[in-house]
């Protein structure tokens, strides 16, 4: 790494600390904070090596997604987490990405239609809550069993999860191919939307919009639902989602 990129890492070490502190409450029983900081720091170095100012994004925004991706990749490699814990981690990141796309859509609507009404804002909140539940279902059902700890749920929960998995599979099969591939790369393979989008020839912003659209389609296809089988509220994570600094 050259001196300029090393200096870039040095100036943004707070990002690694911030991301580690954000994810640690969800995995504190399985991973030490220092381990998360180390994973995040690897992502920060990778971000510095890959950053191209000509692409328009600030380094902090670009690195924030890389740092989160490095934490999730590291957790996937180094430990088998209980399925619910893993789902909360994945949905934490996905929620921020969905809300980012939702905000962009709301801004575009303001330009077209003028100021949003209270009813519009309430609908956006309800949509976001429904989307978070849908992302939790995707998160809890798409990670392969061999990457999960041996946590055998009660029989009623197992039956509910099987029904939920079948419903999700049927809904995923109805998505357009590109949306289905993007979700597979993001949730099953654990890639960031930045990387998953790049593999599909999409910019980060387009990948974010496509992800939000796919989640909205899934929510409609699966219909209104209560909390997923055997699940705590998806925001089991009631902390704010990880937005770009």
Salient structural properties:
245 residues, mainly alpha, Rna Polymerase Sigma Factor, Chain: A, Arc Repressor Mutant, subunit A, 2 domains, 71% helix
Q: Could you describe the 3D structure shown?
A:
By secondary structure, this protein is mostly helical. The protein has 2 domains: 1-79, Orthogonal Bundle (Rna Polymerase Sigma Factor, Chain: A), CATH 1.10.1740; 81-245, Winged helix-like DNA-binding domain superfamily/Winged helix DNA-binding domain (Arc Repressor Mutant, subunit A), CATH 1.10.10.10. Helix content is 71%, strand content 0%. The protein contains 10 helices and no strands. The chain has helices spanning 3-11, 13-27, 33-50, 59-78, 83-113, 118-142, 155-173, 177-188, 193-199, 204-222. Helix 1 crosses helix 3. The radius of gyration is 18 Å and the shape is globular. The two termini are 24 Å apart. Mean pLDDT is 78; it is low at 225-241.
**Stretches with pLDDT under 50, minimum 5 residues:** 225-241
The secondary structure category is: mainly alpha
CATH homologous superfamily caption of the largest domain: Winged helix-like DNA-binding domain superfamily/Winged helix DNA-binding domain
In total, the number of strands is 0
Morphology? globular
CATH topology of the largest domain: Arc Repressor Mutant, subunit A
Can you tell me the CATH class of the largest domain? Mainly Alpha
Q: Could you give a short account of the major beta sheet?
A: none
Number of helices: 10
Encode the helix/strand succession as letters: HHHHHHHHHH
């Amino acid at each position: 790494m050259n001196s300029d990129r090393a200096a870039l890492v040095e100036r943004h070490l707070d990002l690694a600390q911030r991301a580690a502190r954000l994810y640690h409450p969800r995995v504190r029983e399985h991973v030490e904070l220092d381990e998360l900081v180390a994973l995040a720091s690897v992502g920060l170095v990778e971000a510095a090596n890959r950053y191209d100012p000509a692409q328009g994004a600030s380094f902090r925004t670009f690195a924030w997604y890389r740092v989160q991706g490095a934490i999730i990749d590291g957790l996937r490699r180094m430990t088998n987490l209980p399925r619910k814990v893993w789902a909360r981690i994945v949905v934490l990141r996905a929620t921020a990405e969905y809300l980012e796309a939702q905000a962009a859509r709301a801004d575009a609507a303001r330009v077209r239609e003028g100021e949003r009404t209270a009813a519009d804002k309430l609908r956006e909140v309800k949509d976001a809550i429904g989307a978070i539940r849908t992302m939790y279902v995707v998160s809890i059902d798409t990670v392969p069993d061999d990457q999960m700890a041996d946590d055998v749920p009660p029989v009623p929960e197992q039956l509910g999860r099987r029904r939920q998995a079948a419903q999700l599979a049927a809904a995923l099969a109805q998505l357009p191919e590109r949306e289905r591939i993007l979700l597979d790369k993001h949730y099953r393979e654990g890639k960031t939307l930045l990387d998953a989008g790049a593999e599909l020839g999409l910019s980060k912003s387009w990948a974010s919009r496509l992800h939000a659209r796919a989640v909205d389609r899934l929510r409609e296809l699966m219909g209104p639902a209560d909390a997923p089988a055997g699940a705590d509220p998806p925001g089991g994570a009631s902390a704010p989602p990880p937005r770009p600094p």
